[in-house]
Design a protein that fits this description.
Elements (H helix, E strand, L loop, with lengths): L11 E14 L10 H13 L18 H4 L4 E13 L3 E13 L6 E13 L6 E10 L11 E11 L2 E8 L10 E14 L4 E13 L2 E5 L10 E5 L2 E18 L4 E10 L1 E7 L6 E5 L9 E5 L7 E5 L1 E4 L5 E10 L5 E10 L7 E6 L4 E11 L2 E11 L2 E3 L1 H6 L33 E3 L1
Length: 437
């Protein structure tokens, strides 16, 4: 979590500040894959049972390398920030260049960032009731996204004379009609303070409607379409929320220069897809990896929030170790629009009608507690942040939490050994892998 707070300059003498920090990070725990010896023991037992051929024994080796540990490290991070601020009674300014270098816990991962921020503030008149409205455009796509770039493709090879040439093909479907998303936001807020401003805060209600959403949608590969998707402006989205904050000056001592302040922020937010044009839904979160079931883990659906997990509802295991899922009978009108559905037993091979909403990646609310302590020219601050009610998709368990990996010469998590799942049962995305976050 990276929190960026906007600071303003103060009237009076110009100032320069420098702050820095260095941090170290490690993986709190490991996933728990089988050791080499444990994996070999399972292969030997499956060969003895006739589930694997004896030829698999020749490739087992004798190593016990923990590759998870070998690819991790203690990461070091550093951050440097310089700020310049000043102004007069009516106008203030602040500029702050920043350099950050963060290593990843996984070797060869990390990021480096160099950025600069500046802002100004001009005071008009004070008020305790704030009302605002604004329009904002957001391109939200990389440069040249409306064009059809070309790239070499080994599938487009041609022979001219006695020489083989590699051709180039479009990698994206062009869309010259792309335009910016537009967001209209309105908000109303009440600011308050009491006990000589020892306690202060605000209560704000806001609503944002975004139109001409930039989304990647499936298209038919006919005519001028070279790939199966295209970036288009389609549909609209609404975000609504409330933010309540309370700040307090807990302790102040002029003689020692010690000050202690704290603040609490509570924020529930909801988003809803209002419209997707002619599309009933758009599938997202493609299931990469080694799961045999191709498809997606989420959908953008009118009436539901962005971040909706969509798939079969997991029930349990049958007597032979197969996964079972709720089976639905769906009724539709003459246009194919769903008019009703009812649970109708269980199935071991869920189809399209058996997929339902199985989770929401958005939290019910977030809560933040910040504190600051100052002593003369030294200060320290800290932040705690809580999110409640979020669902998460455990992709690691989907790919590595099944014993069937051993049939294709892949390792799996030790926790799978205690599962009643059959060794021949494939991994299938479902509510089984959507967990409380």
């Amino acid at each position: 979590m990276v929190l960026i707070e906007t600071k303003n300059g103060r009237a009076g003498q110009a100032t320069m500040e420098y702050d820095t920090y260095v941090a170290a990070g490690t993986a709190p725990r490991q996933l728990g894959f089988l050791s080499g010896d444990e994996n070999r023991a399972i292969v030997h037992s499956l060969v003895n049972l006739g589930r694997l051929t004896a030829s698999r024994l020749a490739s087992l080796g004798t190593a016990n390398t923990n590759w998870e540990r070998e690819t991790e490290r203690t990461s070091l991070s550093q951050n440097h920030n310089v700020s310049f601020a000043g102004g007069n009674q009516t106008t203030t300014f602040r500029a702050s260049p920043n350099y950050a270098d963060q290593q990843g816990v996984v070797i060869s991962n990390g990021f480096t960032r160099l950025q600069a921020r500046r802002n100004g503030n001009h005071e008009a008149l004070d008020g305790t009731l704030r009302v605002g409205y604004g329009l904002q455009g957001n391109l939200a796509v990389p440069p040249y996204a409306s064009l059809a770039p070309l790239a070499a493709d080994n599938q487009a090879r041609y022979v001219f004379g006695n020489t083989i040439y590699t051709g180039v093909v479009p990698t994206v479907n062009a869309n010259p009609d792309l335009k910016w998303e537009q967001s209209a936001q309105s908000n109303i807020a009440f600011d308050f303070g009491f006990m000589d401003a020892r306690f202060s805060g605000s209560l704000e209600n806001y609503s944002t409607k975004t139109t001409d959403l930039l989304l990647t949608v499936p298209v038919s590969q006919t005519g001028s379409s070279f790939v199966s998707t295209q970036l288009r402006n389609i549909g609209s989205l609404r975000n609504r929320g409330v933010e309540a904050s309370l700040d307090a000056r807990l302790y102040e001592c002029a003689n020692t220069g010690v000050k202690l302040t704290a603040g609490l922020v509570f924020s529930p937010e909801r988003n809803k897809v209002l419209d997707l044009g002619k599309a009933d839904y758009i599938e997202t979160a493609y299931l990469f990896g080694s799961s045999p079931q191709s498809g997606h883990a989420a959908r953008i659906v009118p009436g539901q929030p962005i971040g909706t997990f969509y798939g079969p509802q997991f029930v349990g295991f049958n007597a032979t170790g197969q996964q079972t899922f709720t089976k639905f009978t769906v009724t539709r009108d003459v246009n194919g629009t769903e008019t009703g559905r009812a649970a109708d037993g269980v199935t071991t091979s869920p189809g399209g009608d058996d997929k339902i909403v199985i989770g929401n990646a958005n939290p019910d609310f977030s809560l933040g507690l910040r504190s600051n302590a100052t002593w003369k020219r030294c200060d320290a601050s800290w932040l705690w942040r809580l999110e409640q009610g979020r669902d998460v998709f455990n992709y690691t368990a989907l790919v590595y939490g099944t014993k069937s990996n051993v049939l294709s010469d892949r390792n799996f998590l030790r926790s799978a050994l205690s599962s009643p799942e059959s060794v021949s049962e494939p991994s299938i995305f479902s509510s089984r892998y959507v967990e409380d976050g």
